[in-house]
Automatic annotation (TrEMBL):
The keyword Iron applies. This is Rieske domain-containing protein. CDD domains: Rieske. InterPro entries: Rieske_2Fe-2S (IPR017941), Rieske_2Fe-2S_sf (IPR036922), Sol_Rieske_ferrdox_dom (IPR054716). Keywords: 2Fe-2S, Acetylation, Iron, Iron-sulfur, Metal-binding, Phosphoprotein, Repeat. Residues 163-173 have a biased composition (Basic residues). It comes from the Eukaryota.
Length: 173
C-alpha cells in the first residue's frame, strides 16, 4: 500500500481494487484490529483474521461454497466460516428423525462466531472497510486482544514443535 489514507466517517482505506484483486487475500490492521480482506469471484469480503475456534490464521484458508454459503475453511482445524454472516457451519445428520432423512449429512449453523466487516468500493477504485459496530461479543473477538495474541503464540510454538518432532521421526527411519 503506497499511501496511508486516514479513516473517513469510519471507513478505513485498505487498497486499490486492482491490487486487492491481484493479491486475493490481504491483511490489514485497522484501529488495532487485524482484518483479512478477501477478493473472490469479483466480490470483496472482510472478516477478523483469526479463526474463532483457536485463533488460526485464516489467510491461507480455502474458500468453498458450503450449504449454499460462501465460506472460508480454517487451515488449522477445518472449521467452516461464512464470509457474509460470520456463521460457523457444521455437518450433521439426524438419524433419529422419523421418517428417516437420506443418509447424506446436512450443513447447520452454530450461529455467528466470526466478526465480519463491511467493504465499500468507490467508483474510482478505492476499497474501504467499515469495522463492525455490532456490540454483541463474537468468539473471534478474543483473538484480537492481548490474551488472544498470547494464545496464538502458544499455538504457533506447539505447531512448530510438532513439525520438528515429525521431521526428527522421519530422519530416524
Amino acid at each position: 500500500m503506497a499511501e496511508e489514507k486516514q479513516p473517513i466517517g469510519g471507513l478505513h482505506f485498505v487498497g486499490r481494487k486492482e491490487e486487492l484483486m491481484a493479491a486475493k487475500r490481504s491483511c490489514r490492521t485497522l484501529a488495532g484490529r487485524d482484518v483479512l480482506i478477501i477478493s473472490h469471484q469479483g466480490g470483496f469480503y472482510a472478516i477478523d483474521s483469526y479463526c474463532y475456534h483457536a485463533g488460526g490464521d485464516l489467510q491461507s484458508g480455502d474458500i468453498e461454497e458450503i450449504g449454499g454459503k460462501l465460506c472460508i475453511i480454517c487451515p488449522n482445524h477445518k472449521f467452516k466460516i461464512s464470509l457474509v454472516g460470520g456463521e460457523g457451519l457444521y455437518k450433521a445428520s439426524a438419524p433419529r428423525e422419523e421418517p428417516r432423512p437420506p443418509h447424506a449429512p446436512q450443513w447447520f449453523s452454530k450461529g455467528v462466531k466470526q466478526r465480519v466487516h463491511v467493504v465499500t468500493e468507490t467508483a474510482g477504485g478505492d476499497v474501504y472497510v467499515r469495522l463492525s459496530e455490532e456490540a454483541r461479543w463474537r468468539e473471534s473477538d478474543f483473538y484480537q486482544g492481548e490474551k488472544g495474541e498470547e494464545e496464538r503464540a502458544k499455538a504457533a510454538a506447539a505447531e512448530e514443535e510438532k513439525k520438528k518432532k515429525k521431521k526428527e521421526k522421519k530422519g530416524k527411519m
